[in-house]
């Protein structure tokens, strides 16, 4: 069973700050037990936080698919929409009144980078909601501030798109015939 065009699955992960996919660091260490005497080691700088974030994403996504009785999206392109909610820094508030300062950033146009945040989410969706993140052909991402850690997180929407030219033409034909004016 495949998702019909336009099928939407959406879920939220709240009360946890989105974690970007950290840059991997690689280095070489001596390894006398190997043929060449060295081996490469690759580390991820945010390992514990990242694992918890990905685990929460997979859990919420899987629960939503189960509630809707949907299988994983296979053999169909999709659009992914993300609204990333980051906690506003304390420095944006007046220490005296606790009110938001007029000089506070309207949106979080600072780190963490959108691409690293989205990469974490795409990796978590893979093998949970979609069989391969190469299925994602359109992305809409927004970062915004929230006032408390309880509201931090992400809202995710995955929308199935037409897979073939014929399928797209059929959709266009149906939509144009339903909006065409009728004779009196």
What keywords describe this structure?
6 strands, 3 helices, two-stranded antiparallel sheet, 184 residues, 27% helix, 27% strand, alpha+beta, four-stranded mixed beta sheet
Give me the secondary-structure topology:
Layout: E1 8-14, E2 24-30, E3 38-44, H1 47-68, E4 78-87, H2 114-125, E5 136-146, E6 153-160, H3 165-179
Parallel strand pairs: 4-5
Antiparallel strand pairs: 1-6, 2-3, 4-6
Helix pairs in contact: 1-2
Summarize the main sheet: 4 strands, mixed
Shape: flat
Major sheet: arrangement of strands: 1-6-4-5
Strand content: 25-35%
Q: Can you write the helix and strand succession as a string?
A: EEEHEHEEH
DSSP summary, beta strand count: 6
User: Helix fraction?
Assistant: 25-40%
Number of helices: 3
Average of pLDDT: 89
- Low-confidence sequence ranges: none
Structural class of the secondary structure composition? alpha+beta
Kindly provide the radius of gyration, computed on alpha-carbon positions and rounded to a whole number of angstroms: 22 Å
State the end-to-end CA separation: 42 Å
Number of domains: 1
Q: Would you write up a description of this structure?
A:
- The chain is of the alpha+beta class and about 180 residues long.
- The chain has one domain.
- It has 3 helices and 6 strands, in the order βββαβαββα.
- The strands form 2 sheets. Strands 1-6-4-5 form a 4-stranded mixed β-sheet, covered by helices on one side. A two-stranded antiparallel sheet has the order 2-3.
- A hairpin with a 7-residue loop joins strand 2 and strand 3.
- The longest helix is centred in the first third of the chain and has 22 residues.
- The mean pLDDT is about 90.
């Amino acid at each position: 069973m495949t998702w019909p065009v336009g099928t939407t699955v959406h879920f939220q992960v709240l009360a946890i700050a989105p974690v970007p996919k950290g840059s991997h660091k690689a280095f070489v260490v001596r390894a006398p037990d190997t043929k060449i005497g060295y081996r490469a080691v690759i580390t991820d700088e945010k390992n514990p936080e990242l694992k918890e974030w990905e685990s929460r994403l997979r859990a919420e996504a899987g629960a939503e698919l189960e509630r809707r009785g949907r299988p994983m999206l296979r053999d169909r392109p999709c659009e992914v929409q993300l609204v990333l909610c980051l906690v506003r820094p304390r420095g944006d508030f007046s220490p005296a009144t606790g009110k938001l300062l007029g000089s506070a950033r309207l949106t979080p146009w600072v780190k963490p980078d959108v691409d690293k945040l989205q990469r974490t989410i795409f990796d978590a969706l893979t093998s949970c909601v979609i069989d391969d993140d190469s299925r994602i052909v359109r992305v809409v991402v927004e970062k915004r501030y929230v006032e408390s850690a309880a509201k931090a997180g992400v809202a995710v929407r995955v929308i199935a798109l037409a897979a073939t030219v014929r399928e797209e033409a059929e959709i266009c034909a149906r939509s144009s015939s339903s909006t065409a004016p009728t004779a009196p």
